[in-house]
Automatic annotation (TrEMBL), chains A, B:
GO process terms (BP): glutathione metabolic process; L-phenylalanine catabolic process
Protein name: Glutathione S-transferase rho
InterPro entries reported for this sequence: Glutathione-S-Trfase_C-like, Glutathione-S-Trfase_C_sf, Glutathione_S-Trfase, Glutathione_S-Trfase_N, GST_C, Thioredoxin-like_sf
One MF term in the entry's GO annotations: maleylacetoacetate isomerase activity
GO cellular component terms, A-Z: mitochondrion
Length: 226, 226
């Protein structure tokens, strides 16, 4: 069933990783894929551009269906393979609302993490400002506190949207995994770090772990002084 | 049915507007609501904070279910009232994939529009740089070209994800409406402007049109030199 699927991806890209976790959870192992190097700009290749005018990864194709936005691909997979593998969107309206809420809140965490951890990547050299980076850090600290509070309130051993692993975890885990890797002080988000420990060996996550993270488990320490 | 719904909102906020369009499309008129003034910082009030730790609007409650992220609220409403009003997410997998794809791509258009139109709002005075604003403009122009191309390819009279009005339109229209309002040159996105004309009088959109836009149809000309 996964034979007619093709994923173009980059190692360590959270949007790619979440699609790969969803594929694992939906028991769609065996999909075709091509690992592209960001450093070599391989994601800008013609093969990707033909399917994705943004020339970004993930670029995902299932039969004739192309769906490249990571959340779109995740929701599509859940809908197309609803009864296969893990149910990632629950039926109960209250549970469903919380899953959606956390899924889309992840954007905040993602953007704020990027704006600190990859500040130098996104802001050209002549435009970098201590005041801006300081503000970004404060904003990220506040965001982490919010997420840590969510987990605290849900209780020990909880997933992001309750007692079961859901699409909220698929979407958010790849962001959370950056915090220990980039040396974020544990006290900034102790509950998130427990959550990370609980999930990092889950089969879907382990199977899709970024290969260059396996080679070099420690990343740069851009979150050290948070 | 809508009597046990409560929406806190701000006039002209695209995330609020999209929830209001969804409510109209799902025939949920009659929901309770409270219009809050951004200028007076009313969205930071205790009433909102009690439901939304981000102190943002939209803040939306249905019975005991609170769902504040605009896309989460939209998907929740579609799921909870699937057979009522307009079907906003089609059943057909290929159609569904395109609806999701355009829904989530909207984030790009939204952020790039904000980074030009509201540059002075987001960047403190001492940090503003011509080089950054210029880059933001180029990025927005490229983004508009992409969306215009999507519509061009779909053919005259098409909605964002095909021949029917879907969640893609609910999510994206409130962003597109800023372009004519903020004096974006028509030639930057002629197909989008035709799409805007086609949709602006749709009942759900007209009923939820930002009240301060009705009072003052022309906004500042921050997109004039795009």
């Amino acid at each position: 069933m996964a034979q007619n699927m093709m994923l173009y991806w980059g190692s360590g890209s959270p949007p790619c990783w979440r699609v790969m976790i969803a594929l694992e959870e939906k028991m769609l192992q065996g999909y075709k894929h091509k690992l592209l190097s960001f450093e070599k700009n391989e994601h800008k290749c013609e093969e990707v551009k033909a399917l994705n005018p943004r020339a970004q990864v993930p670029t995902f194709k299932h039969g004739d269906i192309v769906v490249n936005e990571s959340l779109a691909a995740c929701l599509y997979l859940e809908s197309a393979f609803k009864s296969q593998g893990t149910r990632l969107i629950p039926d109960d309206p209250a549970e469903q609302a919380l899953v959606y809420q956390r899924m889309f809140e992840t954007n905040n965490l993602q953007q704020k993490m990027y704006e600190v951890a990859f500040y130098e990547h996104y802001v050209p050299e002549g435009e970098r400002l201590e005041s801006a980076l300081k503000r970004n850090k404060e904003s990220l600290v506040a965001e982490l506190k919010l997420w840590d509070g969510y987990l605290e309130k849900m209780g020990k051993g909880s997933y992001l949207a309750g007692k079961s692993f859901t699409m909220a975890d698929v979407v958010c885990f790849p962001i959370i995994a950056f915090f220990p890797r980039l040396h974020c002080p544990r006290e900034r988000c102790p509950r998130l770090m427990e959550y990370y420990e609980m999930l990092k060996d889950r089969p879907s996550i382990k199977a899709s772990w970024p290969p260059h993270w396996l080679e070099k488990p420690e990343g740069p320490d851009t979150l050290k002084n948070l």
